[in-house]
Specification:
285 residues; alpha+beta; twelve-stranded mixed β-sheet; 8 helices
Length: 285
């Protein structure tokens, strides 16, 4: 596999023209690339920051892999053979583009990180291990907590901004998207379910992407620390999953942190089944 088989571009239309069919052929594995490029197309290329995103596709006669890099986030890739991951590392190193990390299926991310260290002298550190789940048969948690589900509306905008920041602080993620922009993106398509107590106080949220290529990704699910352990997140999650199906999604997916057994157990009880394990590496000089 030659590095030049990786075609890199800052032109979103060019990328989707060449790689769109490939991405749609495996929507669950490429959920992040599909949903992020959809958001960039709708909201502008600088949605995640001033630096232009980079797109890429591996083409040796047939497109068989793709990459997405929206700084300051890691480079996001799908499944690659070790030689393909190494060729990508060579291509990015030659380009001289700052590469803060890589996120991809475990073997792919590991192969890239190994090649990156050899090429640049920069070691990779495992930041997080994730599991991708796909919804099979939805099972609402029993007993249901007190209260009810409802769709978030414009009046909830400040709450969504605050909870988005709190969620990212909890899980140690960079906040690459302005909280107000994040709330507006989700509200624009009715993409947040709130669980509220009997007095109408919101106590949990489950957000979702729009339907893209027949799939929806649930992200994030958040309950303030002082309200956890009461079943609110499971109830909100189940309702958001049902709403995604009602909007026409044939696949509903989500990522979890493998270090959190509570969330992994909850989602499996609701009906989510493992698809693949992903690893996030960060690179430090």
């Amino acid at each position: 596999m030659r590095p030049e088989n990786w075609h890199l571009t800052e032109d979103l239309d060019e990328f989707l023209t060449h790689a769109g069919d490939f991405l749609r052929s495996q929507p669950a594995l490429h959920t992040v690339t599909l949903t992020v490029t959809d958001a960039l197309r709708r909201r502008g290329l600088h949605l995640y920051g001033a630096e232009a995103p980079l797109f890429g596709f591996l083409d040796d006669g047939t497109v068989r892999a793709a990459l997405l890099h929206t700084p300051p986030f890691p480079v996001h890739v799908g499944p690659l053979a070790p030689t393909e991951a190494e060729a990508l590392a060579v291509r990015l190193a030659e380009l001289g583009r700052p590469t803060p990390g890589v996120l991809g299926p475990h073997e792919t991310a590991e192969a890239f990180a190994t090649a990156w260290q050899r090429l640049t002298g920069t070691a990779g550190r495992v930041h997080q291990r994730q599991r991708l789940y796909r919804l099979a048969e939805l099972t609402a948690p029993e007993p249901a907590p007190r209260g009810r589900a409802r769709s978030a509306g414009p009046a909830d905008r400040e709450l969504l901004e605050r909870w988005y920041l709190e969620f990212n602080e909890d899980v140690g993620h960079d906040v690459g998207l302005d909280p107000a922009e994040w709330a507006d993106v989700r509200l624009a398509h009715g993409g947040v379910i709130l669980w509220e107590e009997t007095d109408g106080t919101p106590v949990s949220m489950a957000a979702a992407t729009p339907v893209v290529a027949g799939q929806v990704r649930i992200a994030p699910v958040y309950t303030p620390a002082e309200l956890r352990g009461r079943g609110y997140a499971g109830a909100a999650m189940a309702r958001a999953s049902r709403a995604a199906r009602e909007k026409g999604a044939s696949e509903v997916v989500l990522f979890t942190d493998l270090a959190n057994p509570t969330s992994n157990g909850l989602y499996q009880r609701i009906g989510y089944r493992p698809v693949a394990d992903f690893t996030v590496y960060t690179f430090r000089g």
